[in-house]
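Review form for a predicted model. The reviewer records the input and the model, then writes brief findings.
Reviewer: anonymous (R2)
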Amino acid sequence: MSGENDENWMDGVYCAPVVCIGGNENGSFGELLRDWGFYMKRSVSVYKSVSDYQTVYENENEIDNLKNTETAKDTEAGDQNKPQFLLIDSNVIDWSSKNTLKEIQFLQSCADAGIHLIFGNLPEVSLIKKYKALRD
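Model under review:
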């Protein structure tokens, strides 16, 4: 198994990383996540926005797809960078932006890929009504 020496492996068992979108890495929320990640033996990555994480996620998936093509499609290779949880502070989403629907669609694709989405706070009810993808 590749990567057994990295921080996501504990006694030969893979522990999926956790991603936080929003929380300040140096603030109390970021500290809480780091402490929790240390306790749970998981790496925690913090991103300022959905689009920041989307860029990294898509780049890592491109690299994984190349590795899978080159290495006879190792079944674990595609999941090495996929987090188990995506913690989202909905306050970091600019709900009036033209990119809002794109961000919601990306979050939906994460959920479809088996990543659990956890919103630290929900958007206003009017926004949930406006964006059908949030209700699905």
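Findings: Confidence is low (pLDDT under 50) at residues 1-5, 69-77.
Further findings: The beta strands are 9-10, 13-14, 18-21, 44-47, 85-89, 116-121.
Recommendation: see findings above.
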